[in-house]
Design a protein that fits this description.
The protein is built from two helices and three strands. With 76 residues, it is of the alpha/beta class. The protein is globular, with a radius of gyration of 11 Å.
Amino acid sequence: MELKKLLQDVDVVATQGNLNIEIEYLSHFHQDIQRNSVFFCIQGEHLDGSQYAFDAVSHGAIAIVTEKYLSIAITQ
């Protein structure tokens, strides 16, 4: 499904990058990322998922959902 369709009913604060990309998989676990995935950078009690964003991209993530802008060339 196209990313902009996935986000159509979500209160998005800001976006950066191409929202017209096809998403095939969603995950919050960086080791579970597949090609054409969205990686959710979730802030936990002990870990911040944003520290795994680069790893997620190297495994095929084409977009990330994050609370803060990350200096990485990917749709956010």
